[in-house]
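Lab notebook, bench 4. We co-purified these components, and the gel suggests they stay together. Before we commit to crystallization screens, I want a quick structural picture of the whole thing.
Request: model the full complex, all chains together.
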Amino acid sequence: MPGVVRGALRARRAQAATVLVLTGLAVAVAAAAPWYVTAAAQSVAVADVAGAPAHQRVVRVTGRVEGGAAPGVGERSGAQAVADAEEQASAVLRVPDAAATVSLRESGAISSALARVSLRLVYRDGMCEHLDVGGACPAGPDEVLLSRRTAQALQVTAGDTVDFVLPSQPARAVRVVGTYQIRDPLGPYWAGVDLGSGANLDPGAAGTGDPAFVTSDMVAALPLREIVAEYHLVIPERRFLDDPAGLRADLARQVAGSRGWRVETAAPALAERIERERALVALGVGVAAVQLLALCWFGLFFAVRHTAEQRRPDVGLLKLRGAAGWRQWHLVIAQSAVPMALGAVAGAAAGLGLVRLLAGDAGGAAQARSAALLSAAAALAALAGAVAAAVAADARAMRTPVTDLLRHVPSRRRGWRAEVVDLLIVLVAAAGLYQSYATAREPDTTDGLALLAPALVAVLVALVAARSLTPLAGRLARAALRAGRVPVALGATQLARRPGTHRVFALLVVAVALLTTAAGGWHAAAQSRDDRGRHQLGADRVLTVQARGRAQLLAAVRAADPGGRHAMAVVRGSDGPSTAVLAVDSARFASVVDWHPRYAGLSPDAVAALLHPPAPAPLSTPDGELTLDAAGGAGPPTSVVATLTTAAGEPVTLRFGPVGPARARYTAPLSGCGAAGCRLVGFELVTRGASGRLELARPGAAVTLYGLSPVAPGTVLGDVTRWRGSLSPTAVGPALAAEGGALTITALDAGRASNRSTRVYAVDAPTPLPVVTTAQLEPPAAGDARLPVFGGDPVPVRFAGAVGTMPVAPRFGYLVDLEYAERVAEDTGLGDVPQVWLRADAPPDILDRLRAAGLTVISDETARATIDRLGREAPPAALRFQLVAGLVGLLLAAGAFVVVAAVERPERAGELAALRAQGLAPRAVRAVAWGGYGSLALSAVLLGVAASALAQSVTRRPVPLFLDGWNLLPAAVGPQPLPILAGLLAGLVVVGAAAATAALLLVRAVREVAR
Amino acid sequence: MSGLAVACRRVVHIYRAEAGDVVALSGVDLSIGPGEMLALVGPSGSGKSTLVALLAGLMRPSAGRVNVGTYDLGKLSDAEISRLRGTQIGVVLQGAARNLLPYASLERNVWLAQRRAARTEGIELEDPERILDLVGLPGRGAAKIADLAPGARQRAALAVGIAASPGLLLVDEPTSQLDSRGRDEVLDALETVNAERGTTVVVVTHDAEVGARLGRAVTIRDGRVGAEGRGGQDFAVVAGDGTVQLPPDVLGQFPPGTLFTVDQADGTVTLVPGGVAQSPEPHAGDAA
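Here is the predicted assembly.
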């Protein structure tokens, strides 16, 4: 028997090879899919963890431990306090292998002779390793390390003594041992904490400014009953990759029993995202694999059934000789099973090899083992399906009586079973389509039915079209015969009469439709990633920097790019999670920003003009002696503090007085302004308090300023429009009066002492501050519109214009001019991010120039890198597989087409050769061959593309573009020209090649038979 | 295995077609003795192949009985008929190539045809090479059908037909498209099979010379047994319902509907035409 089977396979090499290839394809896909899912899921997880902000990997546990004044505690070392904090906090939350950092802190203030800054006194494990320290790290109990800008605000350097003051406690002298700047502010060590977070600016905030770092002994010894402790854990990447669900469950469980400690973490969000990404990859790839597998099985069934036509006489002979049923099955199945087994082995090897090449490793050893097992199981299932398809294909012959099997012309009657199968498929497809349409679904999720919907549409269209093929071809044949067009009539007749033509037609339509739909999904996703990457960044390239101040940022960028065409200073903040506040250098905005055509509304030039209307010029002066011509009033001696700022934004304060009742001149030297000079910010009335420290002048204190030469002459001082009070909504005072070339400032009383203000500002920026907003934002119906700028008190704003959306904005956004905002913002806080936006054609040495101008670059992001990172998420991974599956499906359908042509070739060649012998011209034979196969291929491709267009019009996008549902710049809905064209081209090339092969071989066969 | 007797009693077979029913056999009565060689002759469409298909158990008669040996084929199940075909009834289809697997050697083809019989007790099978030798193809076991001349192909088909040592061998048009030499080779092989094994041989043929060579030729006409030729002499046959088919040359003189009186004297039956012509009977040529 094996010899007979071998002989059969040798005699039907082409059919055996086709079955081998088709089975190989099916098994390759089945073997590749699980590995791809595992590898892609791992890859997206790695990309998620790598791309996630550092704070998403951090857990912060905050509580209190006993301080130096706690009853019964006595003297405690810092190490003991740290150990206490660690013990208590780790009892609340434990994450194996997590890097833990303990902090101890308390809020207070540090004051020098000239200024006072509210801040936190902080000890943090390993702090000096994460700081760039100029000077020394604190080692003793009264040593403090200040940030560079705090030191500047206090005007102290290493070696100076300052006072640390706790509320309701006497001041404590401490020695400044050095200054620091935070190293790696975006890294995990500093992530998730509000001490020194990011590259923040703004010294001297009323809230928490840059921390002052001290030893643990100093914090532990503070005369307080309790001190704030923080336990900071950095979750290892491995935990997110290996078991995100388990990590989420662990965190939730431990957070629930927190015993008075507060646990804050964004890690579950990252873990959940990873789970969702993996689920989407599994679902998207799984459904595509199942679709392709179904196509393979159908193609195999179809190919085997067609080759079964050649085996009918074999079965008939065996039945005629009374051979047992199993022997009949053996002969026919072996002719399929042998090439299937060989194809399965080759396919499994090829599939696994290719997927490892494309998708890489599946992760650790355990994951690789699991993926390999799944792949093996899937490959076996695919092979089993293939064998089942072969059994089903040959089953009909087994049921057929001997007389029918031995007939020269096989029965043309289509069994009722085929009709029922078609009807069932149509019903299932329609039901599935309705279900997918009717089921409510979040825009950023998907499900199996939604993924199958385009395929169901394609199947419906294909079956309906295939059913129409036979009658249409018959009608065409009759019409062509009446018209005397023999080749057309012959071709159409053969199309109408050949059994299975409609099946291969349906297969081709479905395959082309699936590929075109996959191309459509890929194109839309690629377009959206491009849009999002550009939108999220705002420019071709964005540097996140550290600067001493916003003015310094502005000055540095202007110095590095004097032409104003390549670089722009930007300070990025937010007013809630959905609202971005961008302070930009308007003069360079139009040149540098990546303004998407779909932002709508104003052009970048119009935006820039609206943000920077004319304003009074700033009052500037170079270094030298300043002379204040002033007269005071009765009451306690009042001094005038003039606040200036250097071009780099560093504050310079000069104190004049105490100013006596009689008009007199007071001088103070000004230095450190540099070539650009200093800008006058304003004046403040102060007096010495009981403690000897400077404080606000008492209510009623008044000073008249006649001139500050050379900065502000009397004409300027006497123009009240050039002066304003604080813009803070709660500030009270001072009263301003301008008369006779002089400005009188009077301190007022306020219900709350903290609301009192004696500060007067020079008007050198428009107030209210003009803003351009996204269209959804509108001014309030009542009251002034205000916006917190740079995290400080809200300033009055004027809605100057609106755009559809703007760069960077998550949903809503405000644009302000950086220079003007810097001048009007008061009491600014933390949380903004200084950036430099660059064009793609910025000079190669721009970074060096920025560094030379005093900026520290801490990150460098390009739009291309952002887009690439988005390309490593789950949706592109699923879409990529769908595209490959679509291509493979098309090749498979073309292969089935070739099989059909091969099986019917001897008979067709015989018929055409007989007609040739009766005088049919060779040209007509060629026309029949090329016209018949060509028209079948062309109509299948066109219909497949049309089915895809229909599917894309009526079904929702099966794979979401982004897992987080981002749709700020919505992708085009429905079929798009480029992917439709691509599907059409691919279909024409592949199916056309198959049709051409079939036609060529038929013509050659006719020639050989006729000879 | 010795030859099987065949008996057909009023066998009727009707084909159901889309255009309407076709009566292929309209009451065949035929008896074939064990070991006899018989030719079934008749024009195309007369029902010869249908009758052979019924004898082979490939179809079931619409009416009547078909007995092969002791088996009433109408009462057997499909499995039993299949077993019978594998052990006791050999069939050689028209067109030698249709009887062999083209990709297997002659020896393999014969071996395959023996498989059913090989598992049946009481049947002794000959070696495939011996069978090929019997039909005049010695040493050609390794050859495939494409390697053979037309006459040899037919003998190869014959070898497959007798591979299981059947008691009844049904052969459809074994000499069509053969030259006289090829025809003689095939007939020699048939005679050898019949002589050496005692196999009952039924041959469907158009060729009257084949009928004459086999000794008995039964003519099937319009679905009935019309005449028989034995020992060179032709006889009309009285069918089971009493009808007799007139020879074609006689029928040409007396169109259907002609009335006869039947006279019998001294064992001779005389048909005397006379009377008014009647409208044609459904079965032209019947005389009752």
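Confidence is low (pLDDT under 50) at residues 280-288 of chain B. Worth comparing against the SEC data before the next meeting. The longest strand of chain B covers residues 20-32.
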